[in-house]
Amino acid sequence: MEKGLTDIELEAASRISRLNLFARISPMLGLAGTLIPLGPALLGISHGDLESLAQNLVVAFSTTVLGLFAGGVFFAIGAIRRQVYAQDIANAEFVFQCLTQTRESEQDPAYV
């Protein structure tokens, strides 16, 4: 039973760590998506091509917003899952303790 409880805890930790990874990487990718189109946007300024500048700035700011939004969503899902898994683990530990106490009391010679 202890092995099962440990497996549940490890699975929960694994799922939460993946969400934490996505929550941290998303804003980084948004920043990269912001910086990449800024090069062509600056070239557009130097050539006087305002349409190219505008298009690249729209892409740059859109990726920033998308990266921050994705990071926020992953963070929120991770927070909710952390809470749910903590409650599940607490319930499993309680059941484990109850079963362990019942088994010990049945084996106690004073119980008979």
SSE layout and pairing:
Elements: H1 2-47, H2 50-107
Helix pairs in contact: 1-2
Protein name: Integral membrane protein
Keywords: Cell membrane, Membrane, Protein transport, Transmembrane, Transmembrane helix, Transport
Membrane topology: Multi-pass membrane protein
Mean pLDDT: 89
Tell me the count of domains. Answer: 1
List the quaternary state of the chains.
Answer: single chain
Broad shape: rod-shaped
Along the chain, the helix and strand elements come as: HH
The rounded Rg comes to: 26 Å
Compute the number of strand runs: 0
- Strand-residue fraction? under 5%
Determine the N-to-C terminus distance.
25 Å
| Low-pLDDT regions | none
Instruction: Report the helical percentage.
Output: over 70%
Task: Please report the number of helical segments.
Answer: 2
Instruction: Outline the biggest β-sheet.
Output: none
The helix-and-strand class reads mainly alpha
Kindly describe this structure:
This protein has helices at residues 2-47, 50-107. It has 112 residues and is an all-alpha fold. The chain has one domain.
Summarize the structure.
This protein has 112 residues and is mainly α.
Question: Which keywords apply here?
Answer:
single chain, 112 residues, mainly alpha
